[in-house]
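Complex 352.
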Amino acid sequence: MPVLSPELKQRLATPLKIGNFEVKSRVLQSPLSGVTDLVFRRLVRRYAPDSMMYTEMVNATGLHYVKQLPKIMEVDPQEHPISIQLFDCRPDFLAEAAQMAVEEGADTVDINMGCPVNKITKNGGGSALLREPETAEAIVRAVVKAVPVPVTVKTRIGWTEQEINILDFAKRMQDAGAQMITVHGRTRAQGYNGPAKWEWIRRVKEILSIPVIANGDIFSVDAAVRCLEETGADGVMCSRGTLGYPFLVGEIDHFLKTGEKLPPPTAVERLECAKEHLKALWEYKGISGVRQARKHLTWYAKGFPFAGELRDRLARIETVQEGCAIIDKALAQLKNMNELNETVNNPFFQKT
Ligand SMILES: Cc1cc2nc3c(=O)[nH]c(=O)nc-3n(C[C@H](O)[C@H](O)[C@H](O)COP(=O)(O)O)c2cc1C
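Predicted structure with flavin mononucleotide bound:
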């Protein structure tokens, strides 16, 4: 059981101030491409109503030429606080895209300077900007000038272990006008492997005056508390820990506000949530939503005896009815088992 030290409690008692925008939670839901659409965010927000959420990253060049809002940029008028994340390397395209983001309802605009994927970096976007700090500065300046809302940056600690430049880079982003920086404690070369190096986040926090958000390996309440203690960061951002587990941000937020750990959801509750997620994706995106739901469903189906077999079936569903029928059968099976009230922990890394 983690302990909320009086120092930490006091540090986190006030709202998170992103420029002139205040957020009543120190726990953020990260942008996750292919995951954090409007449907997923609605589920996360049910348990974490105060938390800042991010759209999937949106390509500013695409917006410039198509001039039409892609589905991944859609924001529910009711959902706040919300940030729209953009990627590109062209300051003018990003400025234009940021204006569209604000029109859509974004409370802040976030620039992706951390994506490691070749398709993005070879065009100069995402983590490639860590190697082009002047371009990154020009981007922040142009976007700050273009929109009335705070502009934030999400990045990594460097390109490789030999090129860790986050201290200089973060300072440059602040000087260019960024109002918050999220640091994923891995290099681009690491991808998502190896532990996140939180010590670099602590060093960033020591030299900046804008809020610093720690990201990387926040899979539990305990990890969040440890990370906040070790880094001195102003908040934590959850990522892979929320896959098939939209409860995590709310669990951490609740603990930071009350010092109490919520009981984790039962396997039945998680499967019910999976079914709701599937149905909502179907309603929002039609058949492509059902295909997208397959991966989500397999992430939910973990931590009980027949989960492996269930995942195999859920990974191949063709229709919403088929998915619901499979889940209903699994729910009946679970309810018949002794494990009815057995709770499961965050299952993302469980093997069953
Ligand atoms: C499937 C997936 C999609 C992601 N998409 C984005 C994205 O669109 N924008 C972004 O800034 N980071 C993206 N990330 C990176 C995460 O936001 C986060 O920085 C990273 O996973 C580290 O946190 P973790 O160790 O807690 O997972 C993505 C990561 C994953 C696994």
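The chain has 14 helices and eleven strands.
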